[in-house]
Amino acid sequence: MALTALALNCTLSPAPAESSTELLAQQVLDALAEYDVTGSMVRVVDHDVRPGVALDMGEGDAWPGIREQIMAADIFVLATPTWLGQHSSVCQRVLERLDAELSEKDEQRRLRTYGKVAVVVVVGNEDGAHHISAICFQALNDVGFSIPASGVTYWNGEAMHGTDYKDLPQTPETVASTTRTVAANAAHLAGLLAENLYPATGQD
Fold it and tell me: Which of 134, 136, 143, 141 lies closest to 189, judged by CA?
């Protein structure tokens, strides 16, 4: 079965600026491609995603179009930089907009995200990757996404230094191997869910 993936790059830097977050997110998409998963990426800051917790915040809101791409994909890659040990404000806005999915059910009262897998990407030259992935995992699972085993790949540079992931001469093997594992597990779980969705529970 053909699977698709969408990565949201939550960098603070608009295009065409280089983005370490985009680089690692693209490496996840490239690894997924080895499992015949077709991927694409959106740099969220380039779009007018309004604050709020509704599906559509009115005229000019770019979220409905981005949401349509999320809902069309089997695998959702949420990628964020680290600032002050936290996920980016852009990532937080994405999580807040996803809150609206709690009201979106299919005819069997299941969240429409139940058949979708989510993984997380974190980069930064300071600590925070475990903290950030924990927050993102909980939020994504709350709104119906399934998190595979080893569902995050990350890179933290040495504290108090200014080297960015995109400036490394090559990808560290530990990061590359983790990325491959994330892709393998995400593709495996997405394939299982595509064939056999969670049962209906009847809960509102």
Answer: 141
Task: Tell me the two tokens of residue 93.
Answer: 């806005």
For residue 139, CA distances in Å to 13, 107, 132, 157 come to 24, 24, 11, 26
Task: For residues 171 and 155, give the distance between their C-alpha atoms in angstroms, rounded to a whole number.
Answer: 10
pTM, to two decimals: 0.95
> How do residues 21-61 score in pLDDT, each as one tens digit?
999 999 999 999 999 999 999 999 999 999 999 999 999 99
Sheet strands (E) in the chain: 3-9, 37-43, 75-83, 86-87, 117-124, 152-156
131 vs 121: CA distance, rounded Å: 12
CA–CA separation, 33 and 143 (whole Å): 26
- Domains in the chain: ranges and CATH: 3-195 (3.40.50.360)
Contact 120, 87 (CB under 8 A): no
